[in-house]
Amino acid sequence: MESPEQKVVRILKENNIDFAATLPCDRIKALLPLISRSIFSIPLTREENGIGICAGIYLGGKRPVMVIQSTGLGNMINALGSLNLTYGIPLPVLASWRGVYKESIEAQRHLGKRLPAILDAAGIAFTMINSSDELDKIDTAIKDSFENSRPHVALVSPAVWESSSSDVPEPLEIAPRTSEMCSKAEIGKPVMTRYDAIKTLAALVNEDIIVANLGVPAKELYEIRDRELNFYMLGSMGLASSIGLGLALAQERHVYVIDGDGSLLMNPNALTAIGDHDNVNLSIIAIDNAAYGSTGNQETCTRTRIDLELLAKASGIEDTAKAHTQEELKEALLGRVKFIHVIARPVYAKCREIPMPAGEIKQRFMKALNPLAS
Ligand SMILES: Cc1ncc(C[n+]2csc(CCOP(=O)(O)OP(=O)(O)O)c2C)c(N)n1
C-alpha cells in the first residue's frame, strides 16, 4: 500500500516538479530522502534564500517546490510579498505544520497556531491538511500556485505521518577531505563607481542574463542598457544572487548577477548555496561600495573588516577575483569568474524609476528566455 510519503512524492511527480528546495523538520524525516531520490533537491540553509532560488528556477522555465518546517514561513514573509506576490511568481510550499498537533516543543506553539492568521493577513494562499485522507489537497494547492502565478502554502499536520514508519534513515558517510584557504588581499582606494562597473558589464553581454539588485543598481542598469534579458529586482533584498543561482540551475545561458555588499551581508546564505553547486553558469558581481548605497550610503562592515571575496571563498566558491578598475573587471567578466569582488566608490546617484510594473518585467524576461513558451 502507498504510504503518505510515497503519495506526496507521486503528487509532486505528477505535477512535473523539477526541483525541491528543502530544509528539514523532524516530522518529515522519512519524506525528505524519498523526495531527493527522485527530484533534484537543493538543501537550504535559510528558507528565505529558497524563495530566491525557486524564483530563479521558475523564471528559467522549470517548476520548483519548497519542503520545509512551518517555522520557516516566519523567515519568508517579506520575500513572498515583495518577490512572488509582486511579480506573480508561483511557489508551492509544503510546510510541516508544527505547534498545533501533539506538540511537545513549547517554542513551536506561538507561531504555529497563528500561522493561518498570519498567512491570511499577508495575502498568501494556504490549505490546511489535517490527515492523510486530505493529501489530495496538495495536488490542488500545487495546481493553484502555477495556474494563478502565486505562492500557495500547504500546512501539513504531523497527524498525516502518524501511521508512517519512524525509522531514521542511515546517515551518509562523511568522506575525509582537505580544505585549504590561503589568501592575502589588498583592498585599495576605490576608483570605479557602481555605474562604471555596470557599464562595463552591460557592454559585454550578448545572449547572457543579468539579474540586477534592487534600488539604484537596477535603475542604473535600466538607464545604461535596458534589454529583455535583464531581470530587475524591486524588493526581496538579499536574494539577487539566489535568483541568479536558480536561473543558472534551470537553464543554459550564462547568468551575471549585480549584487551589493549590504545585500550579500543580509543573506550570506546565497554564497554558501552557490558554493554548494559546482559548475554553475553563474558570475556574481559583488559591487562593494562599503555602503547601503541605495538608501543614502550608510556604511556597512566591509568598510573595515569583511572581505567579501574571502567570504565567498570560505563559502566554497573557489573561482574568485578582485577588480579595482574597469579593465580588471572586464577581464574577470570575460573569464566568467564565479565571484568578482568589485571595489567601488559610494556614490548616491539619483536615477529615475524603472517605468515597468513587476509583472511586465517578469513576462518580458521569461518570453525572451523561452520564446516558444505561451
Ligand atoms: C529587508 C529590507 N531591508 C532594508 C531595505 C532598504 N534597502 C533597499 S536597498 C538597500 C541598500 C542595499 O545596499 P547594497 O546591497 O550594498 O547595494 P547598493 O545600494 O550599495 O548598490 C536597503 C537597505 C529593504 N528594501 N529591504
Please explain how this structure is put together.
By secondary structure, the protein is an alpha/beta fold. It folds into two domains: 4-161, Rossmann fold; 192-369, Thiamin diphosphate (ThDP)-binding fold, Pyr/PP domains (Rossmann fold, 3-Layer(aba) Sandwich). The chain is built from 14 helices and 15 strands. Helix 7 crosses helix 8. Thiamine diphosphate binds next to helix 8, helix 10 and strand 12.
User: Total helix count?
Assistant: 14
Largest sheet: 7 strands, parallel
- Distance from N terminus to C terminus (CA atoms, Å) equals 39 Å
Number of β-strand runs: 15
Report the order of strands and helices: HEHEHEHEHEHEEHEHEHEHHEEEHEHEH
Core attributes:
374 residues, alpha/beta, Rossmann fold, 2 domains, seven-stranded parallel sheet, 39% helix, binds thiamine diphosphate
What is the fold's blueprint, element by element?
Blueprint: H1 4-14, E1 19-22, H2 31-38, E2 40-43, H3 47-59, E3 64-69, H4 77-87, E4 91-96, H5 106-121, E5 125-129, H6 136-147, E6 151-156, E7 192-193, H7 194-204, E8 209-212, H8 216-225, E9 230-232, H9 240-250, E10 255-260, H10 261-266, H11 269-275, E11 282-288, E12 291-292, E13 298-299, H12 308-314, E14 320-323, H13 326-334, E15 339-345, H14 358-369
Parallel strand pairs: 1-2, 1-3, 3-4, 4-6, 5-6, 7-15, 8-9, 8-10, 10-11, 11-15, 14-15
Antiparallel strand pairs: 12-13
Helix pairs in contact: 1-2, 3-4, 3-9, 7-8, 7-13
The chain binds thiamine diphosphate.
Give me a quick take on this structure.
The chain is an alpha/beta fold and 374 residues long. The protein contains 14 helices and 15 strands. The protein has helices spanning 4-14, 31-38, 47-59, 77-87, 106-121, 136-147, 194-204, 216-225, 240-250, 261-266, 269-275, 308-314, 326-334, 358-369; strands spanning 19-22, 40-43, 64-69, 91-96, 125-129, 151-156, 192-193, 209-212, 230-232, 255-260, 282-288, 291-292, 298-299, 320-323, 339-345.
